[in-house]
Design goal:
The structure holds 2 protein chains of 2 kinds.
Chain A lengths: L1 E5 H15 L3 E5 L15 H5 L4 E3 L4 H13 L3 E5 L10 H8 L2 H4 L9 E6 L14 H5 L5 E3 L4 H13 L4 E6 L7 E5 L11 E4 L4 E5 L2 H17 L3 E5 L2 E3 L3 H11 L2 E8 L4 H13 L8 E5 L7 H7 L3 H12 L2
Parallel strand pairs in A: 2-3, 2-4, 5-7, 6-7, 10-11, 10-13, 13-14
Antiparallel strand pairs in A: 1-8, 6-12, 9-11
Chain B lengths: L3 H14 L24 H26 L13 H9 L6 E3 L5 H6 L4 H7 L14 E2 L8 H15 L6 E6 L6 H13 L3 E7 L2 E2 L2 E2 H4 L8 H5 L2 E6 L3 H16 L5 E6 L18 H9 L3 H11 L5 H23 L19 H13 L6
Parallel strand pairs in B: 1-2, 1-3, 3-4, 4-8, 7-8
Antiparallel strand pairs in B: 5-6
The chains are: A alpha/beta, B alpha/beta.
Chain lengths: 327, 370
């Protein structure tokens, strides 16, 4: 049986199912219990599983990740929530110095399986520092995996995979998509594999790589451009940003000979740079045009009156595709 | 405005009047008792002494090995043997232990092999493994971060209703870090079975405690979090042992965490790369603290109780020498590492990009000719 769920409902259901399925799973974070999370991702779970397993913590992000490390080395599977991605900054010491390294420095003796959930990205007109997209920090950190769903079905399946993964996963939830649309989501446990991208639209003329809320925008442009110009786009939702799905990227570029990467993160040293490098290493001679990056500008994510133009717009994505195809 | 000195005096008077955090002593510097120690079995006292003597000999040997270029930088703990050994002896095998990089006297009591400690300071990750049957985490390098790990591990123990506690070892410098305060706060709010064991050894590298904090003691920080704070003479093995035993027992009875401040002194340098004469009158402070040496007073006590003799001492010295030599032999005779092990244990399963880098390393490490 499946029902139409939005992304935040799908997240809630994945957490619910894993709490029921595995007694080692605990949730902790700010306002996740009584309040059900500021986006209601954990709504109803405190009532169902009790305050030993759905823990409203004091307001301290370093402690949320630091105590998660201690829980994980002692047999629990914590799913900490960081209320907004930028609020993880005080916890970066825990994330980079311990979460990512504990398996390595203990030579496998103390793995720290955990899934760090956090809303990310712009587009909901939030206050300052509620719209960051710094996935590249985590994708530059050996020991972590980085996962971003772009729809309800994937969100549920990827989150279940993340919680079951033996390694720590940073799970970035695009705030703009939490309630943007509904999708058929099966009941019960199912998994979407980490490390595998998904082709969401088949095409021959250009590959488009995107994730999170940008995937939806890029898809709209791809549909319009096919209608209007007859060009077909191979749209790939990367879903996992670290490690990247090399085969999906390379195969698509070998087919189309052109590529555009779309991300809302800052352009310089953003993940687009890594994807361009990968294409350069693995598929250079298939290229018929330089690989284009359509990205957030290299400015601090602006106050929300400007944020719609900070993020790649349909117009900018369309320009990028046209430039690439007509090169 | 009160002069700095007057204000300090006045504050101490207030603290004393309120009975706040006077240092607890059981074993005086001359080896006599300041209170009854019936709760500490004689065989434990002797074992403490043996561990402390070994720890000191090991520590001095490690410094010598560094000077000879046979191991890397080393962080000595001389002067802190009672704090580390006695606290470790108060723990049980099921407890989780989160040491810093200066706590090898404690971890060796808990079964960490001395050879492994030397390997750790030789840049070998093999030296970091927890001995079987114990839960000793790798020493934390970023200051105070592991105090939070101890809170989390205690949480997990309580979650499963296990009779186990967690203990974090850290220094006075760590108490200035945010993670220390977050840890006390979390443990206080959730009444977790955790022991915060602070060795106040006077200095965080060059910065004396008086510059580290305006708090007169570290133990008084406990007040703010409404948890128990205890201040003990850290060179008094009996006082330390009892403080940790009691903290452990309270934790297991649901009374929550204890912050223990063991007042001690780092007799040597911060590490072998440090020169303490740059920031303190090393000769004078060492002389002053030698009078409070933790090993001397314990031996005086044991001898007075006829628990220890000259011939016991002679035997122990031989034994310690042999054990230290054996550890050095074991550590220094290890074969060079397989360089490819740098790729191991990043993830449970090696992802494609690491497999590719491993393969590239194999192919190119000796250079390739085209």
């Amino acid at each position: 049986m499946s029902r139409m769920l939005n992304l935040v409902q799908a997240i809630n259901e994945a957490l619910d199912l894993k709490l029921a399925d595995d007694p080692r799973v605990v949730l902790l974070g700010e306002d996740i219990g009584k309040n059900g999370g500021v986006f209601r991702a954990t709504d109803g779970l405190l009532e169902k599983y009790g305050e030993e397993r759905v823990i409203d913590t004091p307001l301290a992000e370093s402690a949320i990740l630091g105590t998660s490390v201690g829980m994980a080395v002692n047999g629990l599977i914590p799913v900490p929530e960081i209320q907004f991605l930028a609020f993880i900054f005080p916890a970066l010491d825990q994330l980079l110095s311990h979460v990512a390294r504990m398996r390595y420095r203990s030579q496998g003796q103390f793995p720290v399986p955990m899934t760090i959930r956090t809303p990310y990205g712009a587009g909901i007109h939030g206050p300052e520092l509620h719209a960051e997209s710094v996935e590249t920090f985590f994708a530059h950190t050996p020991g972590l995996k980085v996962v971003v769903p772009s729809g309800p079905y994937d969100a549920k399946g990827l989150l279940i995979s993340a919680i079951e993964d033996p390694d720590p996963v940073v799970f970035l939830e695009p705030t703009k998509l939490y309630r943007a649309f509904r999708e058929e989501v099966p009941e019960g446990l199912y998994r979407v594999p980490i490390g595998k991208a998904k082709r969401v639209r088949e095409g021959e003329d250009v590959s488009i790589f995107a994730w999170g809320s940008m995937l939806r925008t890029a898809l709209k442009v791809a549909e319009a451009i096919e209608r209007e110009r007859g060009w077909t786009c191979d749209v790939i939702d990367l879903r996992t940003l670290y490690p990247l799905d090399r085969d999906a990227i390379v195969e698509s570029v070998q087919k189309t000979g052109r590529a555009v990467v779309v991300h809302e993160a800052h352009k310089t040293a953003g993940l687009g740079a890594e994807i361009v490098s990968l294409i350069n290493e693995e598929a250079l001679l298939y290229l018929r045009a330089p690989v284009k990056r359509v990205a957030g500008f290299d400015v601090p994510v602006p106050f929300f009156a400007l944020e719609d133009e900070y993020m790649p717009t349909e117009a900018r994505i369309r320009a990028g595709i046209e430039e690439t195809i007509t090169f | 405005m009160l002069a700095e000195h007057d204000r300090a005096e006045r504050l101490m008077e207030i603290a004393k009047a309120e009975g706040l955090y006077e240092e607890i002593h059981l074993l005086r510097e001359d080896g006599t008792l300041a209170g009854p120690v019936d709760d500490i079995p004689p065989e434990i006292m002797v074992a403490m002494y043996r561990h402390m003597v070994f720890a000191r000999a090991f520590d001095r040997k490690a410094i010598a090995l560094q000077r000879q270029g046979r191991i890397g930088t080393y962080a000595p703990f001389e002067g802190q043997e009672a704090a580390q050994v006695a606290s470790a002896m108060a723990l049980a095998p099921e407890d989780f232990v989160f040491p810093s990089y200066r706590d090898h006297a404690a971890t060796m009591v808990l079964g960490q092999s001395p050879a492994n400690v030397l390997l750790y300071w030789s840049g070998r990750v093999e030296g970091i493994k927890s001995p079987a049957g114990r839960h000793i985490l790798p020493p934390s390098v970023p200051i105070a971060t592991h105090v939070l790990h101890a809170v989390g591990a205690a949480w997990a123990s309580r979650h499963r209703k296990e009779q186990a506690v967690s203990i974090a070892y850290f220094g006075d410098g760590a108490t200035s870090e945010g993670d220390f305060h977050e840890a006390l706060n979390f443990a206080g709010v959730f009444h977790l079975p955790v022991i915060f064991f602070c060795q106040n050894n006077g200095y965080a590298i060059s910065v004396p405690f008086s510059r580290q904090s305006a708090s007169r003691t570290i133990a008084q920080r406990a007040i703010a979090y409404d948890i128990l704070g205890v201040r003990v003479d850290g060179n008094d093995a009996f006082a330390v042992y009892r403080a940790v035993k009691e903290a452990r027992s309270r934790a297991l009875h649901g009374l929550g965490p204890t912050l223990i401040e063991a007042v001690t002194f780092r007799m040597g340098a911060h590490t072998t790369a440090d020169d303490p004469t740059r920031y303190r009158d090393q000769k004078a402070v060492v002389e002053a603290w030698q009078k409070r040496d933790p090993i001397v007073r314990l031996r005086l006590y044991l001898e007075a109780q006829r628990l220890w003799s000259e011939s016991d001492e002679a035997k122990l010295q031989d034994e310690v020498k042999a054990r230290v030599e054996a550890a050095v032999e074991e550590a220094l005779s290890i074969s060079p590492p397989d360089m490819e092990m740098m790729f191991d244990h990043v993830y449970a399963q090696e992802p494609w990009h690491l497999a590719a880098q491993r393969e590239e390393y194999r192919r190119t490490r000796e250079g390739v000719s085209i």
